[in-house]
Amino acid sequence: MKNIAVLASGVGSNLEAILEAVERGEVAGRVVLAISDQVEAAALEKARGHRIKALFLSPKNYNSREEYDQALFDQLKKTQVDLVVLAGFMRLLSTYFIRSFPLQIMNIHPSLLPAFPGLDGVEQALNYGVKVTGCTVHFVDEGLDSGPIILQEAVPVIQNETIMTLQQRIHAAEHRLYPIAIDLFCRGKLQVEGRRCFIFD
Ligand code: GRF
User: Fold this and answer.
1) Which atom of ligand 1 is nearest to the CA of 13?
2) How far apart are CA 177 and CA 184, in angstroms?
3) Catalytic residue annotation
4) 190: CA distance to ligand 1 center in Å?
5) Domains delineated in the chain
C-alpha cells in the first residue's frame, strides 16, 4: 500500500475527490497526510473531515524557500510518503525538493499541456479561443508544468462559455482523472522514458 501526501493551498476539491476515491477502494494507496501553506485553506478542513492528518506549514516561519521545503521534506519523510500529490498547491518547489522525489511528485493542471502552462490556464485557453481544452496530470520536473504527461482529458469549449462554466467542467474532469493517475502510480503501472510516460496493464 503506497503512502500518499496531498499538498493544497485552496478549496481542496481535488483533495476531496481523491479521498472519496480512496474510500471507495478505487486507489491502491492511502492518503496519510495533507499539508497546506495557507492557514485558511478549506483543503485542511476537508482532510480533517475525512480523518486525515492535516498540517499547516506557515511560510512566515522560514527564512527562505529552501528552508520551507526542507521542513516539507522532513514531514513527508517522517510519514514515509511514496507519492506527493500537488492539488492546487500555489508555491513553487525548490530544485532540491523536486530532485529529492524523482518521478514521485504529481501535479494537475487545468489545460491540455503544453498549451497554457502557468497561472490561469482556464482563462488563457478561453481568451485564446481554442475549441477544446481540458486537464493534464503530469509528473513534476524542474520546469513550469513541463514534466512527463501521465493522463489528459479533453473538455470542449462551448458557445457563450465563461471562465466559470469552463472551470466547472474542467474541475469535474480533474476529479475523474486525478484518482485514476494516482491509482496507476500506486499499482506500479507507470514507466517514464524520456518525456513519455507509458501505462502498463
Ligand atoms: C485545479 O483547478 C488544478 O488544476 C489547479 O488548481 C486547482 C485546484 O482546485 N492546479 P481545488 O483546490 O482542488 O479545488
Assistant:
1) 14
2) 11
3) 109
4) 23
5) 1-101 (3.40.50.170), 107-201 (3.40.50.170)
Position 2, amino acid = K
The grid cell for 177 is 482523472
Rounded to 10 degrees, the C-alpha dihedral 26/77/199/166 comes to 70
Ligand 1: residues with CB < 6 A are 8, 10-15, 87-88, 108-110, 171, 174
Q: Strands 196-199, 2-7: parallel, antiparallel or unpaired by DSSP?
A: unpaired
Name the DSSP class of 61: G
Pocket test for ligand 1, best of 18, 40, 46, 108 (most atoms within 8 A of CB): 108
Residue found under cell 474542467: 170
Yes or no: say if 58 and 37 are a contact pair by the CB < 8 Å rule: yes
Tallying the residues shown for the chain, one arrives at 201
Region class of 112: left (phi > 0), else alpha (psi between -120 and 50), else beta: beta
The predicted model scores a pTM of: 0.97
Q: Compute, in angstroms, the gap from residue 102 CA to the centroid of ligand 1.
A: 22
Per-residue pLDDT tens, the chain, 201 aa: give them. 999 999 999 999 999 999 999 999 999 999 999 999 999 999 999 999 999 999 999 999 999 999 999 999 999 999 999 999 999 999 999 999 999 999 999 999 999 999 999 999 999 999 999 999 999 999 999 999 999 999 999 999 999 999 999 999 999 999 999 999 999 999 999 999 999 999 998
Would you state the cell numbers that stand for residue 3, as one nine-digit string? 503512502
